[in-house]
Amino acid sequence: MVTNLIAPPQPSEISIWFKESRKYKGLEDSSVWESPRERMSRECTDLLMDFARVLDNVTDGEGTSARLSSERAPALDRLEAAAEAGDECAFLEALESITWYSRPPADFIRAVRLALEAGAHLAARQIALEGAKYYPEDSEIGKYARVLAPPRLVSKNLQPNPARRANREWLKVHGGEYRGQWVAVQDGELRGVAESLRQLIKQVGSTKDVLLTRVP
Amino acid sequence: MPLLKFADANKRITISIEIEGVATTAILDTGAPYSICEPEIARELGFDSADAIEDIKISTWGGKVNGSIHRVNLSLPADEGTSLSLDAPVFVPDLDQDFAPGFPPSFLGLIGCLQSMRFAIDPSSENFYFMASPR
Q1: If we measure between CA atoms, which residue out of A155, A165, A206 comes closest to residue B15?
Q2: Does A59 contact chain B (CB < 8 Å)?
Q3: Is B39 at the interface with chain A, CB within 8 A?
């Protein structure tokens, strides 16, 4: 007996389901845990989205590529207005009304940039990741997705560096004497002071194990 | 849990970090979406523009700021316990903007950095405790 059988959505439901799915994902990190049922549901949706795009190509007289060309979409204009106003809520609301599967990569990129301007930073990430999923061959949207992806742990087994403590102690005790200036501190001793980081690096030469900071 | 002492006599939560291997300091700001790299540091390190989103505006509490987002190596060197190293996005403001002197310093923000770890702050002992998120 088959259990957990999920009825595929009707074509008219596809857009709604997709939007609901996006809304859900927008609240959480992309690495959110999925149950097997949720995963099957998402994969089913993705397959149907791909199918819908193929259908677009077949049934649309000029084909999807023509329809996806550079025509200016009113929905994106709403995103732009919200971004200019710095209105994150209006931006997210406008985002909900857009059916992304039929958008060209340039629209995803434009929406990511507008999301950043609107302060909708998680949405920017989600749009970029979604765009890269639909256009894996597009290097530009791929770059956006890569740059905005969640931070990735490179190493968590690095040895501690207690020598840094002396530099920090120096900053706490003497930092006030150098406000607004760049200082170089090594082993708890001042190595150089300058108006700019470039001048400071010229003074100290090697920056290995040297704390370089502008005193606030 | 690994810990780091604050590095600021004025009680701002300033900690030691490394950006692309260069030791500097950053202010912890759990309300900031992105980590910010001081533009002079970015310029001297010569971040690769091939792995960056350039010429963007981002919305901050202080208004809109022009700059670029780069993917960099960001390390938190622990005084005690194990240090962490992340591949993370940082926002680099353009240098040619009308900032107040000394602004912006480097910040560690939530979305681009702190979200990948568990952390606790003890202002009385001036300690920042952190570890990689188990997820």
Answers
A1: A165
A2: no
A3: no
- Number of Cβ pairs closer than 8 Å across A and B? 162
Domain residue extents for chain A: 11-148, 164-214
**Distance (Å, rounded) from C-alpha B133 to C-alpha B135?**
5
Residue A119, both tokens:
């302060």
Q: What is the mean pLDDT of chain A?
A: 77
CATH code at B17?
2.40.70.10
Which tokens hold the place of A94? Answer: 């406008």
Between residues B92 and B33, the one the model is more confident about: B92
- Total number of domains constituting chain B: 1
Length of chain B: 135
Asked if A100 contacts A126 with a C-beta cutoff of 8 angstroms, the reply is no
Chain A stretch 35-54, residues whose beta carbon is closer than 8 A to a beta carbon of chain B: none
Q: With an 8 Å Cβ cutoff, are A143 and B53 in contact?
A: yes
Chain centroid, CA B10 distance in Å: 18
Q: What is the pLDDT of residues A99-128, one digit of tens each?
A: 888 899 999 999 999 999 999 999 999 999
- pTM passes above 0.80: no
Query: Is beta strand B22-28 parallel, antiparallel or unpaired with respect to A189-194?
Result: unpaired
Q: Using the 8-state DSSP alphabet, how is residue B80 labeled?
A: B
Residue B81 is part of which domain span?
3-132
Q: Which positions in chain A touch B81 (Cβ < 8 Å)?
A: 160
